[in-house]
Amino acid sequence: MLNAKALTQTLQNALSQGVDNIFLVNKEGALLASANDQDNVKTSGAIASTIWCDYEANAPSSEAGGQAEEDELNLMIIEAEAGRIIATSLGMMCLCIQGQGEIGKLIETANRVKLSLQPSFQALLAEGE
């Protein structure tokens, strides 16, 4: 099981100039963890998760019955009132990076956080099987 305090600390450690918040939401849009103010990201997280799930549900599928690799959504950029949100999948969750900074820096932060958290989430998924 993941330690909630350690997860929050990892998200907080990844904050940098131009990155206002980093948060995780599940497929239903519920906020699981946040580096900063949780109240301000609940709506943003729910919106990002809904868009992501809608895309996956309606994406073109390959001949084998699954989603074609070139049609898989890897990253999503949302222009919001509170800044840009970069969303990417992390297991069965959506990792979101919110900030006013350059898109490249936000994407770099998303990739770095995803790489650091991925082993823990893969181990957690393996335990559930």
Automatic annotation (TrEMBL):
Gene Ontology terms: biological process: positive regulation of TOR signaling
InterPro entries: LAMTOR2-like, Roadblock/LAMTOR2_dom
Origin superkingdom: Eukaryota
Annotated Roadblock/LAMTOR2 domain residues: 16-98
GO molecular function, one term: guanyl-nucleotide exchange factor activity
Pfam families cross-referenced by the UniProt entry: Robl_LC7
Family indicated by similarity: Belongs to the GAMAD family.
Protein name: Roadblock/LAMTOR2 domain-containing protein
Organism: Blepharisma stoltei
